[in-house]
Specification:
Layout: E1 12-16, H1 21-36, H2 40-53, E2 57-59, E3 62-63, E4 66-69, E5 76-86, E6 96-105, H3 110-123, H4 126-134, H5 138-147
Parallel strand pairs: 1-5, 3-6, 4-6
Antiparallel strand pairs: 2-3, 5-6
């Protein structure tokens, strides 16, 4: 699996202004639900259940909130760059400014793990994160995710 399988240019949100983790999860849920024809509250509830198990803030100002969604046929991702970092209870205690939402099929399994690993590998690369933060628009952010590093 490649990051291009999960995040297309139209799945990039170059400017997202939210005041908190809860508002961030709600905003991302709304974007994903709208694109997938899902109930926004169901998506948000699934993400919140996952966050209750432990923060998906992976460090280096990056978070990868993810959750299984019943009926979803294939993994779906959104990448958002926040206008201002928000506290996310990340592993390193730093607020996040790059967030990749990942929704997977309700059954979980290998496809879900592959999708999460794919995104985590890309966002672990310092050059990728730096290019995302410097990018001027969604196409540059998308290119940074797929070409850098």
């Amino acid at each position: 699996m490649q990051a291009t399988d999960l995040i297309r240019p139209e799945h990039v949100i170059p400017h997202l202004a939210v005041p908190s983790k809860a508002a961030l999860l709600q905003a991302l849920s709304g974007e994903a639900a709208g694109r997938l024809g899902l109930d926004v509250e169901a998506v948000c509830a699934a993400l919140c259940r996952r966050e209750a198990l432990g923060s998906t803030g992976v460090g280096d100002r990056v978070a990868i909130p993810h959750a299984p969604i019943a009926g979803l046929k294939r993994p779906f991702g959104l990448l958002a760059r926040l206008d201002r970092p928000v506290a996310f209870e990340a592993i390193d205690g730093e607020p996040v400014d790059i967030v990749c939402l990942l929704l997977t099929s309700g059954g979980g399994g290998r496809a879900s793990l592959d999708a999460l690993a794919c995104i985590a590998r890309r966002l672990r690369v310092q050059d990728v994160r730096d290019r995302i933060r410097r990018a001027g628009d969604r196409r540059e952010i998308h290119a940074a995710l797929h070409e850098a590093g």
